[in-house]
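In the design runs reported in the main text, the only information available to the sequence generator was the tokenized backbone. The following block is the verbatim input for one such run; it is reproduced so that readers can re-run the procedure and compare outputs position by position.
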């Protein structure tokens, strides 16, 4: 089965890893400066950069790792099956009206004119796993409340990051529910 990341542009790979360096290095430097000097402004900057760096790095890492694991996952298990009640949730959320406005990292991976329907379904399941993993990992920075304090900041950024990823999960499940009627 073709993985979602099978045709990744080398420029995109460089840009992702460059983004990691741009966010992670300042986060480390600011944490060290805050530990040495203890200034409130350094704490604010350190917290901001740590959260941004973590969210950026985690999404890049999971976007690389999950597609490598996906061929070994049994997607026929219960948690991957579309449940009957989800159709009502899709209607309440009006997914059909906003799903086409969401960005797609590799649009060709989901194009039924370029791929078999089985490949498109596999890519949808893989993307769903990536975003679900990112949604769960979004809550890891909350453990930094014990280091930095600032619970409101960590809770708000964790919930916001998780909800953004859950929007992508919802779109994948909505589209897959329609695709599985065809297959």
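Verbatim output:
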């Amino acid at each position: 089965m073709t993985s979602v990341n099978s045709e990744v542009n080398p420029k995109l790979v460089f840009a992702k890893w460059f983004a990691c360096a741009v966010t992670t290095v300042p986060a480390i430097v600011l944490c060290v400066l805050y530990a040495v000097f203890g200034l409130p402004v350094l704490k604010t900057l350190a917290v901001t950069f740590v959260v941004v760096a973590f969210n950026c790095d985690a999404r890049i890492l999971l976007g690389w790792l999950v597609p490598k694991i996906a061929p070994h996952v049994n997607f026929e298990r219960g948690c991957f099956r579309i449940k009957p009640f989800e159709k009502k949730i899709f209607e309440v959320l009006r997914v059909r009206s906003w799903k086409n406005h969401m960005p797609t990292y590799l649009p060709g991976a989901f194009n039924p004119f370029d791929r078999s329907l089985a490949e498109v379904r596999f890519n949808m399941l893989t993307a769903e796993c990536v975003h679900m993993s990112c949604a769960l990992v979004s809550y890891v920075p909350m453990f930094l409340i014990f280091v930095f304090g600032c619970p409101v900041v960590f809770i708000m950024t964790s919930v916001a990051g998780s909800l953004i990823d859950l929007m992508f999960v919802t779109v994948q499940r909505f589209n897959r529910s329609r695709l599985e009627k065809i297959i």
